[in-house]
Amino acid sequence: MSIWDVFSHKKGKIFLNDTGDSSCEGYYKVKDDISLMKELKLNHYRFSISWPRILPTGIKSDHVNEKGIKYYDDLINLLVENKITPIVTLYHWDLPQVLQEKYGGWQNISMVNYFNDFANLCFERFGNRVKYWITFNNPWSVAVEGYETGEHAPGLKLKGTGAYRAAHHIIKAHAKVWHTYDTQWRNKQKGLVGISLSGDWGEPVDITNQKDIEAAERYVQFYLGWFATPVFHGDYPQVMKDYIGRKSAQQGLGSSRLPTFSSQEKSYIKGTCDFLGIGHFTTRYVTQKNYPSSRGTTYFTDRDLAELVDPRWPDPGSEWLYSVPWGFRRLLNFVKTQYGNPMIYVTENGVSEKMMCTELCDDWRIQYFKDYINEMLKAIKDGVNVKGYTAWSLLDKFEWDEGYSERFGLYYVDFRNKNKPRYPKASVQYYKRIISSNGFPNQREVENWKRKATETCSSSNQLLAAG
């Protein structure tokens, strides 16, 4: 069991009380899904290895599940045979439940060693074929939604402290795994180890107002910078130390709620990144807003800012996900400037739909990919060192606390059918063209297959409606 197995079975935690028990059944459909990747002409595929599937209690000395290892072996071998580069994430939120119950999960420093043992086992078993490793996917969500708001597993609401402590241990765990690879495996395996951070862009509401400019910068520093600055520079962003320190003092606390790294730890953590993974979806306007400490403090009030959206921004899917392509270029340039132009892989970028209907003509997704990829190309022209791009995501799936209500997939999955059949949305054709021509198809071609897609859609819609 992982913390998500347990969390999703608690009533009221997931939209419509859905669980991830069956989802896409990717476990049984490896061959089918790799043929979808071939159809898309993908040259890499990013997936995660489930810690509890390989180490059921989370602890290597307890038991290694060889069946779990075999599943990933088969997947990796098939990818390699089909010339699809595997990019592997070691932690995509599914902490072994035993570690949560026994130790309190990421609130506990002991996770650092347990996670390192798990990662080391993965390097040992898969590292001869896997050359791209991501330690953590979007640790911001793990910390804030897992231990501050409680919207995600394990569902704890340790306001004002939980997120900072979890993040502190995650950063240490990341650094330890990087060093393990660096000292024990790099010479033999010649791979790279990075981390994948999510970041929305924050744009000042009023670009002539110094307070708004600072608030927008603070928004990005409290989001992406919280993890990126330690990994590249060895310590938390100064603005986080200042704000959280000041608010802690106002509360009458003897020390800051933001933990500190010793000078030894700072030098150990600094530079533990061969590439930076960026997950990016949307942008916010940001303005200054003061939250007095007397009213209780949280990660959100520590920042002293308010987030706004422009009602004209398109939002076809998730309520938080507005399409604001220009924010992507600005975020990429921010990374270049702040962290010394690191090698960047875009590890997640995409848009969902919330419609109940089985509409496969997802022209808004085509538009989203076109606009966002175009802004990424402009960033590359600006000199940002972007090495690769990954669309989010191949299939519709269990979308955390949103259950099955939001669909990010290029392929539609019919969850009501026990075989979980996949149907290509129109965006499949578009994305496939971008990959094969390494550029955008011309407009006439687009119109042409939009017509075709509409015909395909109406026929598969009838199929789905009948089903």
TrEMBL record:
<keyword id="KW-0378">Hydrolase</keyword>
<dbReference type="InterPro" id="IPR018120">
    <property type="entry name" value="Glyco_hydro_1_AS"/>
</dbReference>
<protein>
    <recommendedName>
        <fullName>Cytosolic beta-glucosidase</fullName>
        <ecNumber>3.2.1.21</ecNumber>
        <ecNumber>3.2.1.45</ecNumber>
        <ecNumber>3.2.1.46</ecNumber>
    </recommendedName>
</protein>
<comment type="similarity">
    <text>Belongs to the glycosyl hydrolase 1 family. Klotho subfamily.</text>
</comment>
<dbReference type="Pfam" id="PF00232">
    <property type="entry name" value="Glyco_hydro_1"/>
</dbReference>
<dbReference type="GO" id="GO:0008422">
    <property type="term" value="F:beta-glucosidase activity"/>
</dbReference>
<feature type="active site" description="Nucleophile">
    <location>
        <position position="348"/>
    </location>
</feature>
<dbReference type="GO" id="GO:0016052">
    <property type="term" value="P:carbohydrate catabolic process"/>
</dbReference>
<dbReference type="GO" id="GO:0004348">
    <property type="term" value="F:glucosylceramidase activity"/>
</dbReference>
<dbReference type="InterPro" id="IPR001360">
    <property type="entry name" value="Glyco_hydro_1"/>
</dbReference>
<keyword id="KW-0326">Glycosidase</keyword>
<dbReference type="InterPro" id="IPR017853">
    <property type="entry name" value="GH"/>
</dbReference>
<dbReference type="GO" id="GO:0004336">
    <property type="term" value="F:galactosylceramidase activity"/>
</dbReference>
